[in-house]
Write a structure and sequence with these properties.
CATH topology of the largest domain: Heat Shock Protein 90
Low-confidence stretches: 333-348
CATH class of the largest domain: Alpha Beta
Number of helices: 10
Helix content: 55-70%
Mean pLDDT: 77
Structural class: alpha+beta
Radius of gyration: 42 Å
Shape: elongated
Strand order of the largest sheet: 2-4-5-7-6
CATH architecture of the largest domain: 2-Layer Sandwich
Number of strands: 7
Length: 387
């Protein structure tokens, strides 16, 4: 049977009250028992007439005057020793009850603190770098302790996720940088050794690799700025048609190279955004569509205002769509739609991560969906209200 949890203050008050009542009850029982014991001993020591008078008084019978006088005289001689015995009985009973209540209180306090001791041990393991540790305590004594354990486990899970993601990203970054660096190093070494001619075509190829490195570094910088909440530094007033149209126009050569026809449905309106970052996000979405959508197909761009101060920028294509595990917005850095693609054919794999970072920095989100009949739908939602 699972007992309900209480607040720490409530449980502490209940325990203190229970211990006080138990202490009083134990002291009362002890004093009462000792008084009965003294009374029985007194009856055995009373002289004959005094004992008769005492029994008559307890039975409601008027005792003999002489017997009553002997009883009072005898009790007067025992008054001081009896008082002292009662004082000792009160003291002893109080000490015994306090000792019993202390033992019970210590036991209950340790039961309350036991989950915290486990939490402390697990926290030390977490501090040492073991992010897999968790507190397995299922039934805790107080609501605060249970909430603390749940928060700690959630934090440990987040740290482990971040550690795994960091490990993966480091490996992915090393993989992404290795190819252009190897090409640059090999080509320049060949030119220095005279194996390769220092021609304009070779230098153009090296410049292309350097630009690829610059793109990777800039995308990583964008994601890093988003983590530090420093991505959107300045918002300005802009027109939806103007800012989205400018980004689409700058991507016209890329669209023409892929023989993609662009359709637009832009609703005019005034928005407060970081225009440079929105431009960057739109270009990343266009590049992603050009890489994965069918060549020569139609790419549709929609920009519509929502009633809650949000702007939805949507791109729809007829490409292969997204895997089921990515549906809804599960975007991972360095992800490519085709595992066989390399950096040259599949980009850096950071495009959607950059878009999500920019959307999040604007108080929005990115949703990935597959269209009926094939194709992908990417919706970037941003907060356009004036800060």
């Amino acid at each position: 049977m699972k007992l309900p949890s209480f607040h720490l203050a409530t449980l502490t008050a209940v325990i203190i009250t229970a211990m006080l009542l138990l202490s009083v009850c134990l002291a009362y029982i002890g004093v009462n028992w000792y008084s009965t014991y003294l009374e029985d001993g007194l009856l055995q020591q009373l002289p004959g007439d005094a004992a008769i008078a005492y029994r008559d008084m307890n039975n409601g019978v008027v005792p003999d005057v002489e017997a009553l006088r002997q009883l009072f005289e005898y009790l007067n001689t025992l008054a001081e020793p009896l008082d002292w015995s009662l004082y000792i009985s009160v003291l002893v009973s109080g000490l015994i009850s306090a000792l019993i209540c202390s033992i019970i209180g210590i036991y209950l306090a340790r039961k309350i603190a036991q989950p915290l001791e486990k939490l402390t041990a697990v926290a030390k393991a977490l501090k040492a770098g073991d992010f897999s540790v968790r507190v397995r305590e299922q039934h805790t004594s107080t609501i605060e302790v249970r909430s603390l354990i749940e928060s700690f486990n959630a934090m440990a899970t987040s740290l482990q996720t971040m550690e795994d993601r960091l490990h993966f990203n480091n490996m992915a970054i090393a993989h992404e940088l290795r190819t252009p660096l190897t090409i640059l190093r090999g080509s320049m070494q060949g030119m220095i050794d005279g194996v390769l001619p220092m021609e304009r075509k070779a230098l153009s190829s090296l410049l292309l690799q350097a630009e690829s490195l610059s793109r990777i570094v800039e995308d990583l910088r964008t994601v890093s700025l988003a983590i530090g909440h420093k991505l959107v530094m300045y918002r300005e007033q802009a027109d939806i048609v103007g800012i989205v149209g400018a980004a689409l126009e700058s991507a016209r050569p890329m669209l023409d190279a892929n023989r993609m026809k662009l359709e637009t449905d832009l609703v005019p309106g005034v928005i407060w955004v970081d225009a440079q970052r929105i431009h960057q996000a739109i270009l990343a979405l266009l590049e992603n569509a050009c890489r994965y959508a069918s060549e020569g197909s139609v790419l549709r761009c929609e920009a519509k205002l929502a009633s809650d101060g949000l702007l939805a920028i949507r791109f729809l294509d007829r490409g292969p769509g997204f895997p089921d595990k990515m549906s809804g917005g599960d975007i991972k850095a360095f992800w490519r739609g085709d595992a066989s693609r390399n950096r040259a054919t599949g980009g850096t794999g950071l495009g959607l991560s950059v878009v999500r970072a920019i959307a999040t920095a604007h108080g929005g989100s990115v949703d990935l969906e597959n269209r009926p009949g094939g194709g992908a739908c990417v919706t970037m939602t941003i907060n356009i209200t004036r800060p």
